């Protein structure tokens, strides 16, 4: 037989915690979860540019007679450089739009 421990006096006199306010109260949940059009465009543009750079580098390299492995390496490096550059620009754009939305 297990006995229940008596409730501590601190629990008997404890006050309920105040409700925390919801920062999104009054906002349309659909509108608050949408990404701005300019960010969608920037992300889509980045992906298309990365794919185009990779494809163009491979095609130009293969037509000039470079080893396919070297063409793939060139395409990878080109895609990495363009991807990191566009990622940085997209990050700045996203940060700026979030800061503007909070102001």
**Residue share in β-strands:** under 5%
Helix count, DSSP H or I runs of 4 or more residues: 4
Number of distinct beta strands: 0
Rg over alpha carbons = 28 Å
Mean pLDDT: 83
Largest sheet: none
Level of helix content? Answer: 55-70%
Stretches where pLDDT falls below 50 for ≥5 residues?
none
Category from helices, strands and their pairing: mainly alpha
Anisotropy-based shape: elongated
Distance between the termini: 61 Å
H-E string: HHHH
Give the SSE map.
Layout lengths: L8 H4 L16 H4 L4 H27 L4 H35 L1
Helix pairs in contact: 3-4
General description of the model:
The protein is mostly helical. It has a domain at 35-102. The protein is 68% helix and 0% strand. The protein is built from four helices and no strands. It has helices spanning 9-12, 29-32, 37-63, 68-102. Helix 3 (37-63) packs antiparallel against helix 4. It is elongated. The termini are far apart.
Keywords:
mainly alpha; single chain; 103 residues; elongated
Care to give the gist of this entry?
This protein has a domain at 35-102.
């Amino acid at each position: 037989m297990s006995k229940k421990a008596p409730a501590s006096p601190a629990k008997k006199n404890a006050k309920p915690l105040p409700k925390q306010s919801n920062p999104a109260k009054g906002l349309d949940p659909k509108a608050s979860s949408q990404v701005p059009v300019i960010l969608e465009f920037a992300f889509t543009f980045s992906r298309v540019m990365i794919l185009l750079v990779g494809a163009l580098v491979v095609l130009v390299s293969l037509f000039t007679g470079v080893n396919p492995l070297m063409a793939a390496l060139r395409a990878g490096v080109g895609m990495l450089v363009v991807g990191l550059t566009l990622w940085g620009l997209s990050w700045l754009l996203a940060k700026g739009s979030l800061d503007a939305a909070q102001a």
